[in-house]
Design a protein that fits this description.
The protein is an alpha/beta fold. It has a single domain, classed as Rossmann fold. The protein has an eight-stranded mixed β-sheet, with helices on both faces. α2 packs across α3 and α3 crosses α6. The radius of gyration is 17 Å and the shape is globular.
Length: 266
């Protein structure tokens, strides 16, 4: 792995690169709320094994990047930071396609990126994406104070080791959400809902049907809003929020690689 530091919209952003000297494509991994891209090392290794060079930022206020913890005042800033990561990757590998792989909050960021710059990526992969009808911001903003109810590690995966690692990870935020971040979520959800489909961009949607953090039905609303000409859907029975960390992750990785093989063959 290599590390890069970029000047983000709200401070320095740390980018992790899983290098490949002669990649067939670049994958940008976009992590979720309260975590960091280091949790996606196994995903990155799978992608490198398929021929990718992988780049992923720790978002502002997350992981090793600058900023007050989990404070995101405007998700357009996070999208702009992701575009800077894409520019870094393209400078290193100018002649290969770029794919976006966004999980949860990262799916919201990747979806907005695709709406704004849809001619740039070759494919969009959304895992448990925060899009469509996600009721958590409405529920939290209706209260005078946001309750201190951190994410339950058991909600991530049926594999207890995943929850244990998450609970013990010092780079993961284990405190309450912050009101400006919740407000920013609500605004960006509305923006993505109103900004139309992704056209010809191939889209792969991965979701667990026992996802209690980002329920399947609400995300499906967002997928229909984004739906263009080429959508592949994989819903995994019994899987929770983090399908890349689930007990059936081999199946998930196989679906991911099959999708990318099909896209990159054209």
């Amino acid at each position: 792995m290599r590390e890069h530091a970029l000047d983000g919209r709200r401070g320095s952003i740390v980018v992790t690169e899983w290098p490949n000297p002669r990649p067939g494509f670049v994958a940008l991994v976009v992590h979720g709320y309260g975590e960091h891209v280091g949790r996606y090392a196994e995903v990155a290794d799978v992608l490198v094994g398929r021929g990718a060079a992988v780049f992923g930022p720790d978002h502002v206020g997350h992981g090793r990047s600058a900023g007050e913890r989990v404070l995101i005042e405007d998700f357009e800033d996070v999208v702009a930071d992701l575009r800077a990561v894409a520019a870094l990757a393209r400078t290193a590998h100018p002649d290969v396609p770029v794919v976006l792989v966004g999980h949860s909050m990262g799916g919201l960021v990747a979806a907005r990126y695709a709406q704004l710059y849809g001619d740039e990526p070759a494919a969009l992969v959304l895992s448990g994406p925060v899009i469509g009808d996600w009721e958590l911001p409405r529920r939290l903003l209706a209260r005078d104070e946001i309750p201190d109810t951190p994410i339950s590690p058991a909600a991530l995966s049926r594999d207890p080791a995943v929850g244990a690692a998450y609970a013990g990870d010092p780079l993961v935020w284990h405190g309450p959400m912050k009101r400006p971040t919740v407000e920013a979520f609500a605004r960006m959800l509305d923006t993505v809902s109103r900004s139309g489909p992704v056209g010809r961009l191939p889209l792969l949607w991965l979701h667990g049907d026992d996802d209690r953090l980002v329920p399947l039905a609400g995300s499906r609303v967002g997928i229909e809003e984004l739906r263009g000409e080429d959508v592949t859907e994989r819903v995994y029975a019994g899987a929770r929020h983090e399908v890349f960390h689930e007990t059936n992750k081999a199946e998930v990785f196989a679906d991911l690689i099959r999708f990318l093989d099909g896209v990159l063959a054209h």
